[in-house]
Amino acid sequence: MEIAKEAVAGGADWIEIGTPLIKSEGMNAIRTMRKAFPDRTILADMKTVDTGAMEVEMAAKAGADVAIVLGSADDSTILDALRSAHKYGVRLMADLISAPDPVKRAVELEALGVDYINVHVGIDQQMIGKDPVSILMEISEKVGVQLAVAGGLDSESAAQAVRAGARIVIVGGNITRSDNVTEAAKKIRKSVDSPESVDIRGRGTVDQEIREIFKEVSTSNISDAMHRKGAMKGIHPLVRGKMVGPAVTVQCFPGDWAKTVEAIDLAKPGDVIVIYNESKDIACWGGLATLSSLNKGIAGVVIEGAVRDIDEVENLGLPIYTSNTVPNAGDPKGFGEINAEITCGSQAVKPGDYIIGDESGVVVVPKERAYELARRAKEVNKEEKRLFDEIRRGGTLSEILKLKKWEKI
Ligand SMILES: O=C([C@H](O)CO)[C@H](O)[C@H](O)COP(=O)(O)O
């Protein structure tokens, strides 16, 4: 309710009751919003896939102005939902989320007579890099029905969507998870009203985007996004500093520091060297290796094993995370492997996996899911910012999360 009030203050015309809220609170979510916002259009995201008439009737009777049916539902469901919408005086929006051929389906849905078509890329799909604007561009050339758009929109993509023909811009997380909802809504409103004045920045490479996001979020956010996996055990910050980069892995043996130092020459600027050395009592890393790493632009080092020359490495400032410190080192004997799959801090690490370190410790993100997990960590981060804001206003965490209600029974 509070978020809705603040979004309306920022210029939102419609209020969408999202599917998760409907699943949590049922039609009462619609009733409550209707009562609180008599002059706003209430959109019920029912995502109806069957019994179209019954679900539209439920939403209409609870006070919705527009009900959403899945575009991929059978034509019989869409048609009966439409009959019900006409009977109860509400409008029907068909949502193209997960439609196998959204352009073809949009043409069919228009012919069936829906009031709006929503070009929608779902939250999980956004996490793997899909966006709705390119599909919208194609669809707006083929249909005349009013188009809505949804799926991770921010002020830039909202402007692009309006330029591409969207008449209704549905924004979720970038308003509801903002720490200043009214300002976030105002920014979107401005882009929607004057889309031509918005500068559209090009996206960088996927690797740049991943690094940028991992620099912004914390290892705790990442671990949450990984459903509590990924955290190294027994590895702590020695020289503090945020560290992000793909792994160069080193397997070496007690009393032998040859491979750890050779790895510095193989690593590229921005890489993180991740070392497993069985011995916690003989150092495989020290001041000279640290200075060499700085010369090569390496982002940081993780060592399950021991580091020495602590005064020097602290002064040099390269982020180092380790399990132990000792004064003694071994010799360069040359056993071990560089860029083989290793285990470090009880986590499997492959060359190229993303390694992120901060004050809380180190997490390993498998390279094949790096983009998705970066995006999911960003969502966790947004959610936490929102919770911080709510706690600052005077609530407690358990009150805000309704912890008791959601405990497992
Ligand atoms: O419909 C939505 C989603 O499927 C969950 O119900 C969202 O409301 C819609 O995607 C807009 O939210 P964002 O993608 O966070 O902008």
Automatic annotation (TrEMBL):
It catalyses: D-ribulose 5-phosphate + formaldehyde = D-arabino-hex-3-ulose 6-phosphate. Residues 1-188 form the Orotidine 5'-phosphate decarboxylase domain. It is an enzyme of class 4 (lyase). One of its GO terms (biological process) is 'de novo' pyrimidine nucleobase biosynthetic process. One of its GO terms (molecular function) is hexulose-6-phosphate synthase activity. Keywords: Carbohydrate metabolism, Lyase. Its EC number is 4.1.2.43. CDD domains: KGPDC_HPS, RraA_family. It holds the Pfam family RraA-like. It comes from the Archaea. NCBIfam families: PRK07028.1 (NF005442), RuMP_HxlA (TIGR03128). Belongs to the HPS/KGPDC family. HPS subfamily. PANTHER family: 3-KETO-L-GULONATE-6-PHOSPHATE DECARBOXYLASE SGBH-RELATED (PTHR35039). This is 3-hexulose-6-phosphate synthase. It comes from Methanosarcina mazei. The lineage of its organism: Archaea, Methanobacteriati, Methanobacteriota, Stenosarchaea group, Methanomicrobia.
